[in-house]
Amino acid sequence: MTHFDLRAAINAISDVTQNRPQPLREFDQIYMKVADMVLQAEFLARKFDGLDVAFIGDGDSISLSALHLRAMGVIDCGPKSIQVLDFDERIVNSIIRFSEKYGFSDRITARLYNVADPLPQEVLHTQDAFYTNPPWGASNEGESVFIFIERGFEAVKKNALGMLVIADAPDIPWTQSVLLRSQRLANDHGFLVAEMLPEQHLYHLDDAPNLKSCSCVFRRMEPKIWSESSIPVDKDRFANFYGRNSPLKIHYVRARSTLNYGKAEDHTYSLEQWEG
Ligand SMILES: C[S@@+](CC[C@H](N)C(=O)[O-])C[C@H]1O[C@@H](n2cnc3c(N)ncnc32)[C@H](O)[C@@H]1O
Fold it and tell me: Which of 197, 228, 229, 254 is paired with 33 by a 20 to 30 Å CA distance?
């Protein structure tokens, strides 16, 4: 790990978290804690230095964190370009707004996309690396993880890298079984596990505050499975996607415009003046 100015790093990530929409728990939007975001963004910036990177979902805003840490002079490496694909328009808009404000919209784009849909042709096999922190698949034996990483495999070129962030707790059997099956799937697609940072990150997760995730870095050795076009996900795979009895059935989360973005929403408080 490289050394950096802790105050400058946390202030930069604070800019990023201030910009994020409130997470929707029903879609597994559960944000990573700030110190772990600093370390994760620095790790990604170092591993994917100079690369074109596709993010399959990015509620945490690790994409913006990596670019902003660099723009603020905290680190001196980072991706050449980033494309974020997410089904939540609030997240897409927040990425566009932030990158315009801080002057790096030439390095990051964000678009509305649901993993159940075919990957856009203009993204297919164009990227040097993918990153994903998907729903962790506790209730569907990892199926939601597999759908996200399969899109990652499709997004990248032949000699590519990938980074998967999923639950990792040696004493919780489902996390180990999903991790094992995810690594097997990556092997089947010609990727090896190049690096693994176990039990790294904590989340704002009320019902499991100590559940950590790992970073698993993949490197493609051979394009064993290589599709020239992308197809929709079979609906049989939608059950329990976001948890027990919570299937994948929403296409997009749409943003409702609000005048005071990044500040308290005006329906959450009222103002009372002195009488008389
Ligand atoms: C599911 S969350 C996983 C937890 C992660 N810590 C977070 O909150 O971002 C990851 C991202 O996937 C996005 N996402 C969820 N379902 C999706 C879908 N069907 N297609 C595309 N993106 C999706 C969410 O909007 C979020 O930004």
Answer: 254
Rounded to the nearest angstrom, the distance between the alpha carbon of 272 and the centre of ligand 1 is: 39
Q: Ligand 1: distance of its center to the CA of 151 in Å?
A: 13
Mean of the per-residue pLDDT values of the chain: 95
pLDDT in tens, 70-99: 999 999 999 999 999 999 999 999 999 999
Q: How far is the CA of 135 from the centre of ligand 1 (A)?
A: 7
Query: Which residue in 147, 133, 158, 126 sits closest to 214, CA to CA?
Result: 133
Query: Residues 116-137: pLDDT tens digits?
Result: 999 999 999 999 999 999 999 9
Domain ranges within the chain, ordered by starting residue: 25-254
Degrees to nearest 5, angle at CA 134 with 128 and 135: 170
Please give the share of the chain, as a percent, with pLDDT higher than 90: 89
- The answer to whether the CB of 86 is under 6 A from ligand 1 is yes
Rounded Cα gap, residues 143 and 270, in angstroms: 44
What pLDDT score was predicted for residue 100? 97
Q: Compute the radius of gyration of the chain from its Cα atoms.
A: 19
Any ligand 1 atom below 6 A from CB of 87: yes
Run of H or E residues at 47: helix 34-47
Q: Does domain 25-254 have CATH number 3.40.50.150?
A: yes
